[in-house]
Target: S9 family peptidase
Amino acid sequence: MRPADIEVLAVPGRPALRGDLLLAAVSSPDLETDQYRSAIRRISLSGGETPWTQGPRDSSPAISPDGRWVAFLRAGEGKGAEGSPQVHVMPVDGGESRKLTSLHLGADAPVWAPDSRWLAFTAREAEPGRYGTEDADERTPEPAAEAPRLITRLDYRIDNVGFLRDRPKRLFVLDTFEEGEPEAVTPRDYSVSQPVWTPDGERVVVIVPHDFDRIETREHDLVAFPVDGGAPEVLAACAGYADQPVYAPDGTLYFFGTSHEDGVVVASNTGLYAVVPDGKPRRLTDVETVDIESGSGPAVPLGDEVLVAVRNRGAVELRAIATDGDGAKFDDLRVLHAGHSAVHGFAADGGTVVAVVAGLDTAGELVVLGADSPRTLTDYSKPLRDKGLCEVVELETTAPDGYPVHGWLVLPEGEGPHPVLRVVHGGPFAQQEWTVFDEAQVYASAGFAVVLGNPRGSAGYGQSHGTSVVHNMGTVDVDDVLALLDKALERPDLDASRTGIMGGSYGGFMTSWVAAKHPDRFRAAWSERAVNAWDSFAGSSDIGYYFTEGYVGADPEEQRRRSPLSYAADIRIPFAVVHSEQDWRCPLEQAQRQFVALRQAGVETEFLLFPGEGHELTRSGKPRHRVQRFEAVLAWWARHLS
Model:
């Protein structure tokens, strides 16, 4: 796989299923337009597919309960409302779509009411005079000419979105059979998210920051808003985050959530909760062993079970939780799909269950799950396989204290001995998966063996595994990172004298830390969008005000001891500092301080800065920037590991 081959990475979104109608939006990078193109495809349950829309940016299909209509989002090529995602609807038997919204900042995914007539969605509403809207004097100021922002709270912005308080996310409803603008159901005082209709169609339940967002909070409530006006009702007060509520046919409201009751505010496993009449949610899954992957979509109630995607040792498995359970452990969950793969979306209707399954040779295919073996309906990854994918070998070893360490080795073609890259993922509470990883494949195709893994602090191995680095970062996680590398270097086709270390975000922190603490292990380092100094990160990052204390603590001296910047002068190997100009998760100052400290210490260092990008550059940045970054990475390692 070469850098420009990201164009053939076709990724299906979460599927929509009703009867024999199966729809999914499939997206891929487009280097010519420097955008991501997506169109909705209709997939036959017996195999084969046809275009449902032509794009260029269609997404989020939702089929009405009566099976007659499809609502979806379509974004154009212009600015403002023209270029923002807007709600469209079209009949399932074909025809032209109707545009239902023209909101300046666009709309989020639509959700059908039980009557198949009304839709609910959330959308950001700009303060007058901001984001290209008219002010009180009917002027439309450029961004640099907008009025100053008065900021009174810590949670005023978020990476990859921007400022929040001057464009709250409101709940809207609209009648698809009538002309007119959608009606706002919630006020501008706070943002809401994840709408779901009550079974009677009279209210919409959304997630609201606790106590209607009156102060900064890391807890959520589930609140029902009557669509025809009236006072909202708090259905459940959650002890942590809440996400993706969904009603079962019997009227039970389920949602994903975390709990902060035990004092853990980071590295918390996500569980399945049910709302009970007294308003205190009941957790149906075990806190330690079950970690739901909410990014794979909401739970799907099916009979006396609820389907969820669960993280497990690099896999994302589709499993079923009994509705009458309480604190079910991982091994108690019925398996629908498991193995060396990751379920990135799923849906069910009647007795049919479909899933988007990614693996070591695919970025995602639509699969029907049944009593027999899974049946794959699509072949989106054939162009990728035609480009050539390198072999992936599972690695297992132990750290010096005997703790098990798990990971993978991506091998180049040829006999070797190959130079080696130790690539560390971000998070840290995330997991490297049993799926195609474009970065590792590009590096391996260029001749570098790539070692990947999930050291302590990662997700998918139990909550204790994730919390083991809380107030302990840069200790056992380092042991695991190096132990996995040593395991790989036992192979005769790898060259232990030519190793490099690289990573982004937490992986960038680890790169900076290891380069200072173990400089003799590596020839060079590539540290990307890293946390280098906890003291300034606490105030400059969008999440720093709680993340720093959660992982490191509030003591300034301890923050200094845990900061790679404090040891920059100990680095003796060539060092690349790589960052995005608009990164608000690990802000630019983190890179600037590291670069200056390295240069002043006489370290051979370079600073590569990507304009206009945020923290998600390597995953969802501009396609051309992603290719340019790949080219820079390969040039760096060709120079230092030749």
